[in-house]
């Protein structure tokens, strides 16, 4: 199992925390903090659809954070999911969040992350409180429409008649940093403009500016990023075999979808490589899919070994299909 | 004192409720309701500055509502005041609301309105509750930016970089109708677009569409309407004599500022009429000001008599200046 290594130097912790990231905002502050104490990190996910294989990427970073001695909070942003253009009807949110929690826990377990080092929080646990709500109003009395719209441009679904909720979303995410009591927010680079808004406005409310760590995005099968709420762009963790085969047949973008951060073919069996170059015999597609399910590319050797050991178990528990 | 006359017919109540209004939305529904029972009305005021003499106009309608057997709630919208472009710094809101309550109570007493028939509520009493906040989010997931902006156009201060809070304002005012449990919202015609938004969106949340009653506006000394937060546009109830004189000297718009609903010069002493035509001897300005303080134009004979009796007392209590 992944364990905090208390013998790591601040510099080693810094390297572990920031490896494979696309961008770090607040590098110096992060280094300073690590000299003083272990840090608190939060990663949030809006429960807008079933988690897909791309979730392995942030989860492998969560593993890094834990190894570096961080306290990590995973926020299930159920209220955000509701706000984001009504993707999740309110009545379904509770059930969906329960599903997310089960899937993400299994996913973390499959790559050897001990759950006792993590905290799981739901947005509605605190985002409807009097104190938080007052801060939402305080913040919205400082944030311009222009800044709110700009901040949400890459995350809030862009529609012809945008809803008011889409403008609230970024401010709430900024306030979460304060209410979750963290030093760092971690997310995909698609969150960059929200992080900038948080850095700009939190100090106006008397709260400290946080450090921001950004992952590269996992590209989707169709579209710029893999999205839980867009069926055609993602391969779901529980996707039926027939559906996976159909999606894989549609194009050869799977490589880019699943292995964007690793040297492209380094971890792939030879069969997969030829599959991804255009030759697509059935057994090679099967090999790719097993890779997707069982060996996330960013894992350390130790992780991969653990994952191999647990693969059967995980697959059995979640009925992961094999081509 | 003004008392509910239980012998009024539904038609007589309707006439009393709607007299001197500029517009009624839901006329038929109002007539139907009055055949069944007495109705509940709400009037809200954002505590953005010190109340001015224009407040006599809605207060005289509140008197009408009470005479017609209505239950009337006056909402001190302290949260709205905060949202409206930060006119009221948060720390001052509580004190300001206390001042509003004292002034409005005195104002109602001066025109013979019994306070025991009125309910005073502050926005922050319920607008930060979990239930209300969830409804704000539900509503903002339905209201488009376009509709929110349009609704607030005449009420929210229009600035170069509009704040997010200005877009929230109209939705909150719509929800107030549900949370105050009223049949009717009453306000100036400047609220018309907000009322339209409320009529459009409340039914989407499963709440009933309310009746809307609209007053003509009291024009300001400078600008389109008298505004509590714009010193140059208003004559304050507690305005120092020197300041009133200065404002009156600036123009001859006082007639339109104070007597927009009555036949222009019907209630004015002869001296005031000549003053308003351009001759401005000192004692005539004084006469106008006494009129402003003591004899609101829309009051019934009974009101005026009561007001005359109480004028000295009210003036003494609140240190109303005389020119």
| Secondary structure category of chain A | alpha/beta
Report the order of strands and helices of chain A. HEHEHEHHEHHHEHEHHHHH
* CATH homology-level superfamily of the largest domain in chain A: HUPs
Under the CATH scheme, which architecture of the largest domain in chain A would be assigned? 3-Layer(aba) Sandwich
Instruction: Report the C-alpha radius of gyration of chain A, rounded.
Output: 20 Å
Helical percent range of chain A?
40-55%
| Percent strand of chain A | 5-15%
Largest interface (CB < 8 Å): A-B, 31 and 31 residues
Label this structure with key terms.
disordered C terminus; globular; 49% helix; alpha/beta; 323 residues; six-stranded mixed beta sheet; homodimer
What does the secondary structure layout of this molecule look like, with pairings?
The structure is a homodimer of 323-residue chains.
Chain A: H1 10-18, E1 23-25, H2 27-36, E2 40-46, H3 56-67, E3 71-77, H4 78-83, H5 90-110, E4 118-122, H6 130-140, H7 145-152, H8 164-179, E5 184-188, H9 192-201, E6 211-215, H10 241-250, H11 254-258, H12 270-277, H13 282-294, H14 301-318
Parallel strand pairs in A: 2-3, 2-5, 3-4, 5-6
Antiparallel strand pairs in A: 1-6
């Amino acid at each position: 199992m992944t364990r905090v290594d208390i013998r790591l130097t601040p510099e080693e912790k810094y390297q572990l925390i920031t490896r494979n990231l696309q961008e770090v905002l607040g590098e110096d502050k992060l280094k300073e903090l690590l000299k003083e104490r272990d840090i608190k990190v939060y990663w949030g996910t809006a429960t807008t659809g079933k988690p897909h294989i791309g979730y392995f990427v942030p989860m492998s970073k969560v593993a890094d954070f834990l190894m570096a001695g961080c306290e990590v909070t995973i926020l299930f942003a159920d209220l955000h999911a509701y706000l984001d253009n009504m993707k999740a009807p309110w009545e379904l949110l509770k059930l969906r969040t329960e599903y997310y929690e089960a899937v993400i826990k299994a996913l973390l377990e499959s790559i050897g992350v001990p759950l006792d080092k993590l905290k799981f929080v739901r947005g509605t646990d605190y985002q409807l409180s009097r104190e938080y709500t007052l801060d939402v109003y305080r913040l919205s009395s400082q944030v311009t429409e222009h800044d709110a719209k700009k901040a949400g441009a890459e995350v809030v679904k862009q529609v012809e008649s945008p809803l008011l909720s889409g403008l609230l979303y970024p401010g709430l995410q900024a306030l979460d940093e304060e209410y979750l009591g963290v030093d760092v927010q971690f997310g995909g680079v698609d969150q960059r403009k929200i992080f900038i808004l948080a850095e700009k406005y939190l100090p106006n409310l008397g709260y400290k500016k946080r450090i921001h760590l950004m992952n590269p995005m996992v590209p989707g099968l169709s579209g710029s990023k893999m999205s839980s709420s867009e069926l055609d762009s993602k391969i779901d963790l529980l996707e039926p075999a027939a559906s996976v085969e159909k999606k894989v047949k549609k194009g050869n973008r799977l490589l880019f979808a699943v292995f964007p951060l690793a040297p492209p073919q380094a971890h792939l069996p030879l069969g997969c490589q030829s599959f991804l170059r255009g030759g697509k015999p059935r057994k090679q597609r099967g090999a790719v899919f097993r890779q997707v399910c069982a060996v996330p590319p960013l894992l350390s050797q130790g992780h991969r070994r653990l994952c191999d050991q647990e693969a059967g178990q995980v697959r059995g528990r979640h009925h992961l299909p094999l081509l």
